[in-house]
Amino acid sequence: ERVFSSWVLSRGGRVHDMQPAPRPLALYFPQFHAVPENDRFWGANFTEWTLLRDLVLSDPPLKKPLSVDEGGLGYYDLQDYTTRQRQAHLARQYGVTGFCFYHYWFSGEQAPPNHLVMGKIPEAMLRDGQPNVPFMLSWANEPWTKRWTGEQDTTLLSQTYGNDEAEWIEHYDYLVPFFQNVNY
What we know:
Blueprint (H helix, E strand, L loop, with lengths): L1 H9 L14 E4 L7 H7 L5 H6 L27 H13 L4 E8 L10 E2 L2 H9 L6 E5 L4 E3 L4 E7 L7 H16 L4
Parallel strand pairs: 1-2, 2-4
Antiparallel strand pairs: 2-3, 5-6
């Protein structure tokens, strides 16, 4: 797959013109805004930008997000409608045909009462239509741990799978509006 698309590009072609045209999707990590769980675990207003904003690497230098003035999105907040609209525009501009949203639904002792974490952005997309591109969901069905800090055995949000059919139905019912969306 990669060899053929590289060959097409090397001859001046465009990947999205290939027949049948591949449909590249981008993973969409909905954590670029403050969420209560991250505030609780890592401190107020923690986002993925918190770790990157002040990071300085000399070799190779870290490429910071392009500012809006430079054609990028800057240190965006996904709750902003215009940011999500611009993401869709940039995706189309560069041949990305859709997004694969990470979906977080937890069960277990530390899980939120409604099971959902970071659901604001996909729900906003259902309400306001942005980003207006085809999408799919990828259930990130694993526990949240502190493994990226070196504390592999510290669980922040557990993920269990029981025989609770009512919870399965609740999860399915939550997902139905996504499945019925014209862009799904």
